[in-house]
Amino acid sequence: MLIFSKNIFSIKIFFNFVVITTIVYAINFRISGFLQSAYGQDTTGI
After folding, report:
1. pTM recorded for the entire structure
2. Per UniProt, which keywords does this protein have (predicted)?
């Protein structure tokens, strides 16, 4: 039972990590897209 709950805990941490990373990537993508449209520069490399 202890191993089972530990496993669920690590799965939750992994899931949170995936969600946070996805949100960060989406925000970065939006910011770079906004900068590109605002200044007309290619900021996709950032």
Report:
1. 0.53
2. Membrane, Transmembrane, Transmembrane helix
